[in-house]
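Quick one:
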Amino acid sequence: MPIKLSVWKLLAQETPPQRLKAIIGEHFDKCATGRTTPIFDFYPEGPDLHDNGCWQIIEQCAIDKQFSISDVQIDICDYNANYPCKVVKKQPAWLNKVLLYPKAFETNNIKPEVIFGHFVARPSWDRIVLHESIKRTNNALYSFWQGKNKPYSYRNSIKKLQHYYPNDWKKYKNLLDNMPSTNINTTPDKQEFITFPDNVLPLKPYYEKIFVDIVSETFTSGTTCFITEKTTRPIVYKCPFVIMAGKGYLKALKKFGFKTFDTWWDEDYDNYTGPERLEKIMALINTLSREKHVNSLKLELQTTIEHNYNHIIQGQWKTHTHRLGISDE
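Output:
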């Protein structure tokens, strides 16, 4: 019987690379003894295994343990995942979780009071830059809860800021050092950051006051497409969205049957990743910040918004999973 190693739990525990390599190597040994397929389980997550270094470790261990890499299996929720092994794409856990609470997200269609929303917890380089840009509009509701109190994310954020913004990284570091930063009246505890729907429900009154949500997804490198509660929030609260994620993320959402907003604004940013995508999104933020007819525009978007709401609440996206190579579960 196949043995799965839950690698995501190890990543969540911030396992050091050398220890991670040892554990993965031990898993290969067990599979060799049992003559079973080495399976590395990342469910319910969908990280970029090149960006976090996992793929390099798996590949090297396969060589060291004399396994063909084509015999390795990865279970993952990255719908653009492309590795030279067997990739099993699992259904998006957070879309499935919404189905467990069909009445929890009913919302009022209130006229927007501000244009933007941006609600994040854990630091990452792109969230810091976006947060600074959105605050400068003076037309947003926002929250950014974790800074130095999330050491692993903090260190990674600083490292990438130094790489992407060598002239400005100290400015962004200062911003990060002074977290939390918020203008909404909620103070979530640790459980509310990690438990669904607790990490969504407290934000309901603020989604009713914004026009568009600037979504900062969990993983944004390469072509990563991992759908979390961050994307479900604007959909269940009937709000348009702009999404910082991997290249092709919006295209994947469309394959799931969701609609995006390219009729009303430029979504060319979806053809980019990393700093290039972020720059495109910040240019779009500047354009939208000058929008004078938000209420009438919201009415124009209503058919698309209602489609997305029904599509997620009724689980209609499940009829499209084959388009992303997701096997029946």
